[in-house]
């Protein structure tokens, strides 16, 4: 019986494409190897397969494959930004009765730079603040306030907590976006030390209430404590550490933060 | 809801789908030989795949599932465009480019032209098997035809390619009939 009759074209294609069962393949391999015509036929089929693969190895570079995929991402990102903008605008627009808005609009610049005691005391004061020339810009921009505490006197600690809390409460009520940071160095670090803090519970409660409030401890002070007194300062949960309190204050001021030393 | 579904996909699946883009593009190009259309088809298939990714039960079957979506996109496209033009009549645009003077490029153009001349069914089968290495069962599943049809189409496609290409290649090599024997 002729080998070529034994194997149909479909069978040879399946052999080339490795689609046969192992025992079938073994038998076919022996037969093909012993028959030059079959062998040639298989070679040609393999060559056709290789040619097809070769022909589509390098494809015409439409500006397509990359950019389109990126396009989808860009669209999604643009959608997100738009949604965020709409959401933010809606939120900010919520408490918008006219007098309140007027107070909110002019409040921050007038109150923030003044000494802490005056910050929250009078809601009337901002209304007369004469030259907040760009009310809209003020209302939408973020107010950033930095309190610096370098003393562990109880009245100072009390004062910084009172001021920060009052300020945060005021901004929240006015709908003003604000960030407040309390930087401690020197003896002021005691505010954040678990073993020395006079009111850890209040710090914890404030951090929980205001997510735009942060407490930072100076690493240099922590190092000095360790070096000079052999004390490893344990900080309250939620307190962050900055390399240098002074450097952080300078950096924040350069970034437009309002500096208040307590 | 569809918008949120997009975000509910696992990051992994999305990455895998995006990585499949080049392969989808290659396949679509082999089917239609039109770069812009191939790009559109690949994009459409990916978009549909992302939208329907919750229908994919077995991750191992992802490739076959993805290419079956591409097949549907391709079919739908020509269903819509039937009265416009027949892709089999479209000549390959790069046949006359200066690049085709290089022999490598010449072979590429010859093979692509030969594949473009195949009937659509044969063209799809031969490219799915050769370019993606799908098994016959997978190809049957992707195209929605019996496995016997896949085998016969593949057989006819390769015979047609052989009939078209072997004489051309032999002419190029200048050694009719002998070269193929030496491949072994």
UniProtKB/TrEMBL annotation, chain A:
SUPFAM superfamilies: DsrEFH-like. This is Uncharacterized protein.
TrEMBL record, chain B:
Residues 110-161 form the RNA polymerase sigma factor 70 region 4 type domain. Residues 21-82 form the RNA polymerase sigma-70 region domain. InterPro entries: RNA_pol_sigma-70-like, RNA_pol_sigma-70_dom, RNA_pol_sigma70_r2, RNA_pol_sigma70_r4_t2, RNA_pol_sigma_r2, RNA_pol_sigma_r3/r4-like, WH-like_DNA-bd_sf. It holds the Pfam family Sigma70_r2. One of its GO terms (biological process) is DNA-templated transcription initiation. SUPFAM superfamilies: Sigma2 domain of RNA polymerase sigma factors, Sigma3 and sigma4 domains of RNA polymerase sigma factors. One of its GO terms (molecular function) is DNA binding. Keywords: Sigma factor, Transcription, Transcription regulation. Belongs to the sigma-70 factor family. ECF subfamily. This is RNA polymerase subunit sigma-24. It comes from Candidatus Muproteobacteria bacterium RBG_16_64_11. The lineage of its organism: Bacteria, Pseudomonadati, Pseudomonadota, Candidatus Muproteobacteria.
